[in-house]
Design a protein that fits this description.
Elements: H1 5-10, H2 34-45, H3 57-60, E1 79-80, E2 87-88, E3 115-116, E4 122-124, E5 132-133, H4 147-151, H5 153-156, H6 159-163, H7 170-176, H8 186-195, H9 198-208, H10 216-230, H11 237-242, H12 250-259, E6 279-280, H13 305-308, E7 317-318, H14 340-348, H15 350-355, H16 379-387, H17 398-409, H18 414-418
Antiparallel strand pairs: 1-2, 3-4, 4-5, 6-7
Helix pairs in contact: 2-10, 7-8, 12-17
């Protein structure tokens, strides 16, 4: 039974109604077909999309780890095992770690998510012929039904994630040679592998019509439909509070009042998903190989600057959504912080936190030859990151920090975490699941 407005107010809503976002509804989300969702589930968990047949989308985006991998920086091709237990394959050593923390997948089927990745390099753009802007060029986006679907092209074309070492497979060689969408290119090779599996042929017949062509874009569209359905997370205690069906407990309400008031969190973590979809520099600690081209020797990650080329965008990264945030550690664009409290305290005094960072909290599998701390040891780089910081220091008591964490825990939707279909028992390729 819905609580009346009078009762809702009488019981003590901790934040002003005008400060809180409107409740989410079905109209906030894409509604894919059940056939495409079921097909996408199998493709999401099937290692057949990788060059080595050992890495799936779920390797780095598993529901057991909040649709991420539980690592600061993951190991894609050349790794074995799942989550924090993933280790290098000594017979096929990774060239480097994946340079950024694996982002969570919650609510990416919502219409308001129109740009993706930590730097927003993939964005909806009506001025482009296909309606999507990507650094890989416009020929790379024809056929994708959404930005979320276009996102699927990046991991399969990344040597460190799914494509693999140069000599490892036909797919990895095509990627290294720059043969991507052309005949005989990486996409074509991946699609051929899928087309050759009878169960996939039958499932695509149900989705796209009997005998329809199976291109890589069709694979990506199905994966996007699955992600949009499976990891929708809009039934947390906070959501029920917004809908007036169940009030948050007192401590969570107090944390909510801080979030939307004194602490100023909602300045950037705004809207129904607690993100303004913008990019900010908050002196976030940098670890790992950095986001550099293979011919570049530095370990820097310039963030949004790599997309826009504007000096003011240096070290700016996307404001992450906070849905299910309590379950998606480690935190930061490179997973530098292992706990929610640690990354929250970073926001209170970013420059001080940068200068006093303890590297022992990073969750990094052993990788021979890894250069994980080069930026932290470079005074010039640290100075540049600090100078770009946009957040003024603020003071909160330990009790207020605890209340904020209580509120952040109220953003957890357990169904969105575990998923609606779950992990399949097997995949059509017959390859082993993670």
């Amino acid at each position: 039974m819905r609580l009346s407005t009078a009762l809702f107010l009488a019981m003590g809503c901790a934040a002003n109604a005008g400060d809180l976002p409107a409740p989410l509804t079905d109209e906030s989300f894409r509604q894919p077909s059940t056939q495409s969702i079921a097909l996408g589930q199998l493709l999401f968990y099937d290692p057949v999309l990788s060059g080595s047949d050992t890495v799936s989308c779920a390797t780095c985006h598993h529901p057991r780890f909040g649709t991420s991998d539980g690592l600061s920086l993951g190991l894609g091709d050349g790794g074995t095992g799942l989550g924090p237990e993933r280790v290098v394959d000594r017979e096929n050593l990774p060239e480097k770690r994946v340079p950024r923390n694996s982002p969570a997948l919650f609510n990416l089927g919502a219409y308001e998510f129109t740009s993706l990745f930590h730097d927003g390099r993939l964005e909806a753009d009506p001025s482009k012929p296909a309606g999507i802007r990507t650094p890989l060029g416009q020929e790379m986006v024809a056929g994708f039904q959404s930005v979320l679907a276009a996102q699927a092209m990046f991991p399969v074309l990344s040597p460190d994630e799914m494509a693999g070492h140069y000599s490892e497979s036909a797919i990895s060689r095509a990627v290294r040679q720059g043969r991507l969408t052309h005949s005989g290119g990486a996409w074509s090779l991946i699609a051929q592998k899928v087309r050759a599996i009878p169960q996939y042929r039958a499932l695509f017949d149900r989705v796209n019509g009997v005998g329809s062509q199976i291109d890589f874009t069709d694979i990506a569209n199905a994966i996007a439909d699955f992600v949009a359905f499976e990891f929708r997370a809009d039934d947390s205690p906070f959501d029920r509070h917004l809908r007036g069906t169940q009030l948050l407990p007192g401590p969570a309400q107090q944390g909510m009042a801080l979030f939307y008031g004194k602490a100023g969190c909602s300045t950037c973590h705004a809207g129904p998903f607690q993100t303004d979809h913008a990019f900010h520099a908050i002196a976030m600690v940098q670890i790992g190989p950095g986001k550099a081209e293979r011919f570049e020797s530095h370990n820097r990650d310039d963030g949004r600057f790599r997309v826009t080329g504007r000096a003011q965008d240096a070290f700016r990264f996307r404001t992450p959504s906070l849905r299910n945030i309590a379950l998606t550690a480690p935190y930061g664009h490179d997973g530098a912080y292992a706990s929610l409290e640690a990354v929250l305290r970073h926001h209170l005094d970013p420059v001080r936190a940068l200068l006093s960072y303890d590297p022992s909290q990073a969750i990094l599998p052993d990788l021979p030859g890894a250069q994980d701390w080069n930026i932290l040891r470079d005074a010039g780089e640290i100075s540049a990151i600090a100078a770009a910081n946009e957040l003024e220091p603020m003071s909160l008591t330990d009790g207020e920090v605890a209340l904020l964490i209580t509120f952040l825990n109220s953003l957890t939707d357990r169904t969105g975490v575990t998923g609606r279909l779950g992990v399949p028992r097997r995949v059509p390729s017959g390859l082993p699941l993670d």
